[in-house]
Amino acid sequence: MTPARFSISRFILCGCSYAVVLLMLLLPLVLIFTEALRQGLHTAFSTLLEPDALAAIRLTAFVTIIVTVINTLGGIAAAWCLTKYSFVGKRFLIMLIELPISVSPVIAGLIWLLLFGQEGWWGNWLTAHNMQIAFAVPGIVLATLFVTFPYVTRTLMPYMEQQGRDAEEAAFLLGANFWQTLWQVTLPDARWALLSGILLTTARAIGEFGAVSVVSGHIPGVTETMPLHIETLYNGYQTVAAFSMAALLALCAMSTVVLRTLFENSFRKQPS
Asked: Which residues form the ABC transmembrane type-1 domain (predicted)?
């Protein structure tokens, strides 16, 4: 290929890439913020201060914090186990961890209903003990836990595999216990990967719709997270309120993406 043809091909490829980004990513964001601010900034803010909107924001924040903490601890433990030890069934365990990525969130929600719904396997027992998981906050937490579990584990595993076990075995020989080795030897080298996984988990938890929609029951002010509240507002023809909540959700998602990019760039700039 001649240099001229190569330049033309590169120009066309770059142009197509920018066009896809513009049409698929930037244009929807512009439309969301335009619709949200159609009646002014004051109106947009006032819709976010409605009782149901505040309840949805609080519930989303509550579920996200719980899910992120649990999945961070579980992800660290799973990544440590899978990268530092060899055992029978290791590949099967990796497959199970990656299962939420390939399974539809709606199916995940239906599984929780099958287990904890009123007509589910444990429904009668839960009812007899005055416990409710489906159509309540515990069901939302479980559904979100399932769909966000792989991110910390899969982000940490490549870095822990590169570390090997030499430094950790040296720490054990010097008298360090498991927790000292984990916090002072293993995780410091993988801290940017850990933060990246935490941010991915946070972004997915904030925006999860499918699994939560199945198990929540869509009860306004009680079991509606921000994505579900957006659907309720839009179906009720409250366009400004729906797009205002969507704009807030988009800002949260963009913030996590920007932070993750900054952390990754910081990691790449570190001397090896």
From this structure: 57-264
